[in-house]
Amino acid sequence: MPLSRRHFALFTATAAAAAALPARAAEERAKPEEAKAMLAKAMAHIKAVGRDKAFTDFMTKPGPWVDRDLYITVFDMAGKTLAHGANNRMVGKDNLNLQDANGKFHVKERLEIAKAKGKGQQEFAFLNPMTKQIEPKLMFFERMDDIVVACGAYKPA
């Protein structure tokens, strides 16, 4: 049975949209520069409104602190999660020995770098909240007194 003009147009538009999905998903990924900028804004936000309000703000969805695959995380120097923009269930938990998909102790490594240098960056594999896939992530972080604030960008697998 041949397609009507309307059905053909709908089919063509649907096929074109489906073909564009992978490219669009790649475009929607945040860039490392955006993660660095969000980290700088988060540090300023903590100073402006205080920790309690800032940590609550970082976990509010939708909100300015959860943008595509960008979100803020905050740890104390012992590895306890104080704020996590992608997964509120991590808050209050000791995640010092949390391992990524490759067995890397990324929280421990982040805290060690922050203790030694005050700030830094690292790569590890973590669940992307947009794609629900384990993907390589480039994390930027900075120490503020007894906490470490971080924001990272996922890299296409």
Describe the structure.
With 157 residues, this protein is of the alpha+beta class. It has helices at residues 5-28, 32-49, 51-58, 106-117; strands spanning 66-67, 70-76, 81-84, 119-127, 134-144, 147-154. The model is unreliable at 3-26 (pLDDT under 50).
Uncertain runs are: 3-26
Q: So what's the oligomer here? A: single chain
Rounded Rg: 19 Å
Number of helices: 4
Write the topology of this structure.
Blueprint: H1 5-28, H2 32-49, H3 51-58, E1 66-67, E2 70-76, E3 81-84, H4 106-117, E4 119-127, E5 134-144, E6 147-154
Antiparallel strand pairs: 1-2, 2-3, 2-6, 4-5, 5-6
Helix pairs in contact: 2-3
Feature tags:
157 residues; alpha+beta; six-stranded antiparallel β-sheet; 4 helices; 39% helix; 26% strand; disordered N terminus
Write a brief structural summary:
With 157 residues, this protein is of the alpha+beta class. The protein is built from 4 helices and 6 strands; from the N terminus they run αααβββαβββ.
